[in-house]
Amino acid sequence: MDIEQHPDLRDERWQRAATRRAHRDARRLRRRARFRRHLPKTIAILSAVALAGGLALHQSGRLDSLLADSAPSTSTAHTSTTAPSTVEAMRKVDLARPFAGTPAEGWADGTAGFVAPPPAPVAGYSPEQVAEATEKVRRFLTAARLDRQVLENHTPDPVLAQLDPESLTTIRAKLAGGDVAGTSWILTRVSKGQRLLPVEPKVNGRMWVESGEHGTLAVHTNYVIAYAFDPGDKKPIGPMDIVALERWEATYLVGNDIKGLWPGKAQGFTYSIACGEAKKGFLAPSISERRLDGKPAKHDSAYYFDPANPMGDENACGN
Question: Per the record, which residues fall in region Disordered (predicted)?
């Protein structure tokens, strides 16, 4: 049979439906082309931005516990707390409760800290679609910031699998080239030779949703994560010797034409860390690198633990 004589091709309703499908597919391809033209450029720029932000707030690491540590807050809300005395700061560290005596003591454990907002309609997306978007971001953050395979074994697959394949060009290139610092904005890696204690990191912050570019949902996040490290044969003076902090403000785009998540803007810093390892992109506790030449932080610990405070541009590690 001549294909042009096929009954479907001569049916007007079928032709109208086929035309609508073709237009719909064409619009989808055009939208994806816009993502390809614009969003990957954002990612390429962000690698440098995140690196600068990641080195912005390193504490000097010199006798960290003698600096004013702060008492724990009784709430996970954005509140600052007063600092304890030097005697309190130097009390014995309990490795079973490593966050005791720090502002993170009362925070949620692990994934429980990534709390999504109540679902509501946003920019034409239903509450159910918004809830699905925030759940994608929660799963991503869990993999990128809490998964031990990612943190300690430096396996990026659980993180990359949740991102749109077209967003990964720059990220994969940096990973392949061993650029750890250039990818710290997308996932956290603990320094080789360092081990986390067998307790969940503490998490505090918030998530909110707005209309994003190209008809997407923009899921914004602002979280502080505290990690507790095994001191090994070193003797910690106080809890901040073994607790290292990361804070990341990051946006993730979700939409009908995105497979998974598309990473957007990101900036962050680390605090109470080993400066040398941080400059390489790795997270390590201050006890692993005693420095006598670093500048002290401008504020007490409570300030840096509070995600409501400005990000700032300090660099106590030096160049």
Answer: 1-25
